[in-house]
Design goal:
Spore Coat Polysaccharide Biosynthesis Protein SpsA, Chain A, 2 domains, nine-stranded mixed beta sheet, 9 strands
Length: 332
């Protein structure tokens, strides 16, 4: 009988400055069950791999599975989570902590596992997180309000439709087998979604159930804006409205074609489209004009684009107003 309760997945690349903080946060967990730590390093060019090996040698009491690549898989467009990581998962639950994020509550895993045990209707549990800079200092103004902070509640698909997330990557403890089985079943359609991995994962989860959201702050999301290979740094100050548009459009399409569920994110699509057009008018830089043109081309011509998005805005306005009233009550 498998005794592993939780599989902790650490994904890292060139995180020598942060990887030990991430691993220490995992090692300090106080739990009444067994857990494993699967570490995938994508051929870091700094000392990340050496630090991982040293940490593993200093913690013989922990169960590690190391995947230390010698060639970068991401640059080859290889889906390394599917190919290398997911086949190693033994836990009833799984959670990802990227190498530059970290956990701040030693009771995090136990709290979340207890919630999942007592709420079989939930596919995952998330929680609030601190948003910190490269030095671990909190931002005066949270640049990621999509992550709350929210009060404890049950998070459903409708909240995602209006742009809120049920937790950042390092907060989400997932029921492993159901998620991996549905992912394998719909793998081609899933990977065809033009969205980042977090958005695709959260959409898949919420199409299969609800997520229990805890108001506790139990992890830190590091937003690195001054160098490095993080998503935040690579996208800082870029106009990502085209990506947001196709992201929302493809998730809506996936929900209907795969699950026959109507994902009512019409307002999000309308809002992003109008923001892109207004940005190109108010500040007609090459980037802003190109983004607006790419969004219009998604609908073949400007007439269809305007008709569709004006209808989306008009028809979804009552639901948007109701959502804003509800979300205001949920903010801490």
């Amino acid at each position: 009988m498998n005794s592993i309760k939780v599989s902790v997945i650490v994904i890292t690349y060139n995180h020598e400055k942060y990887i030990l903080e991430a691993l220490n946060g995992i090692a300090k967990q106080k739990v009444f069950f067994d857990y494993e730590v699967i570490i995938h390093d994508d051929a870091s060019t700094d000392d990340t791999q050496a630090l991982i090996k040293q940490f593993v040698s200093e913690h013989p009491e922990m169960k590690f599975k190391l995947i230390l690549q010698t060639e970068n898989q991401y640059s080859k467009k290889i889906k390394f989570t599917n190919k290398y990581i997911y086949p190693l998962v033994e836990g009833e639950y799984m959670i990802v902590c990227e190498g530059d994020d970290y956990w701040i509550d030693p009771d995090k895993l136990q709290k979340q596992a207890d919630i999942m045990d007592s709420h079989p209707e939930c596919v995952a549990t998330g929680h609030n997180c601190l948003v910190v800079d490269e030095n671990g200092k909190g931002y005066e103004k949270n640049p990621y309000r999509i992550y709350g902070p929210f009060k404890t509640h049950i998070f459903c698909l409708d909240e995602l439709a209006f742009g809120s997330y049920p937790g950042q990557t390092a907060t989400l403890l997932i029921r492993a087998n159901p998620y991996l089985q549905t992912l394998e079943k719909h793998v081609d359609a899933f990977h065809a979604i033009r969205a980042n991995g977090d958005k695709k994962k959260i959409t898949e989860l919420l199409l299969n159930g609800s997520i229990y959201y805890l108001e506790d702050f139990m992890s830190a999301y590091r937003v690195v804006l001054t160098g490095g290979d993080s998503w935040s740094n690579n996208n800082y100050k870029k106009n990502r409205l085209y990506q947001s548009y196709v992201d929302a459009k493809d998730c809506r399409k996936y929900a209907w074609e795969v699950y026959k569920i109507r994902f009512h994110n019409e307002f999000q699509i309308f809002y992003v489209a109008m923001k892109a057009i207004l940005s190109a008018i108010k500040k007609p830089t090459e980037e802003n004009k190109n983004v607006a043109q790419k969004i219009i081309r998604e609908e073949k011509n400007i007439f269809l684009f305007l008709i569709k998005n004006l209808w989306y805005g008009f028809s979804s306005m009552p639901r948007y107003i109701a959502h804003r009233i509800q979300i205001k009550k949920l903010f801490l």
